[in-house]
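Support reply, case 0932

Customer input (verbatim):
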Amino acid sequence: MSYQYNIQTSKKDLRSSICLFIDHKLATIVKLFLSTFLVAYIYSFSENIFNYILNVGLYEIASYTTMLISYFVVAYFVDKTNRVWIYRIGVILRAVFVVFAIFYGKDLSKLILLAGFLNGFSQGVYYSAFNTIQQEMVSRKSVKSFMLLSNITAKVVDVVFPLILGALIEISTFAQVAIYVFILCIIQIGISFGIRAKKPDNSFFSIKQYLKDLKENENTYAKMKVIYLTCFVYGFTTIITTIVNICIMIEFNSNLSLGVFTSIFAFIAIVTIMIVNKFAHIGKRTNLFLFIAVFQLAFTALFSIIPNIYTLILFNLANAVGYIIYRTILDIHRNANLKESGLYGGITEHQVIMEIMFDISRVISYGALILLGNFHSLIAFKIFLVLMSISASMVLVLLAIYERKFYSNISNDEKAYKIIKKCLLNK
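Our regenerated output:
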């Protein structure tokens, strides 16, 4: 278990927090390149749309399977050692993968599975350390503001850098842009030396013990069961971004167009989450979540029935708005519950369970995508798209049920924090 905290005397390391925040935003750019544009690049050496779908499915399923395994294994060492060094190794491994993409270029068509394994391994090592460090640094009181800021800045990156990366790939080559991304990885490594994290004393990694401690707190256990189920359902939504990229590349066959559309929808998403944060309070937004869920599903169905440029835009718009809402709200709840219960020692185990839930559903969804690639049926592809949209809507429905059940009598997060803090201190 991670080292124990005293919530009355713990101090925040501002420099480490800033370095971690900036470092992770650079990581967001790298991930954007290794997901959105690498998936688009696969299109360039695919013979037809179904071959493209098959290649993307193989790449992603290899990536998430490896990520699931490596995350679980590395988490054991994260919990027992100085997690900053493991975090740094994760950044280095991502840089190695970028170099791999640079040198193999078109030959990636013959190395799809290997590319997926390398990406998944680097992601597993990186996030197993990052998720733990982040949770150790962010207090319960700051979770909402931190996650909101984190997701908004991530979307700012999604506004600016798809345009830059898309334009650069159009006027140069994928390999040349990969060199610039590699430089960002080197900068990340340098910034990581400004991050400090306490090495736990006499720590041990035990999911069994964590679950045992969790069950002793009936209210927290009830909350966590809903959160873990939501994480499982959320994992299915990951493939929607891939499907969006596939649709845009089929329609436009242009990295620049992919960048333009990604940027526009990211900007709309930022405005949306800021409005939701200001005017929709926790426990009072059930109807909003349900409306967004219906909104997202309706435009997905419309695009599937009448596929054209206009319905594609509406589909992407609904997906962008829905995604930032359920991603931000889920991040706030899943990272706050452990602190509310005082189970600070189970941070690593908590993150591992969530990652298992995420990746199992991701592997299932990309396995289904591989089957679709073999069926050679656009109708089956559209049905699959609607099913994945239903999973996105279900995330919002589960969050609505969660807040209705556990926070319906609390007007906002500040009141919740004061009540929880008072109970913990009295205990």
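We compared this against your earlier run and they match. Two observations from our side: The first helix runs from residue 14 to 44. Residues 1-11, 419-427 have pLDDT under 50 and may be disordered. Please reopen the case if you see a mismatch on your end.
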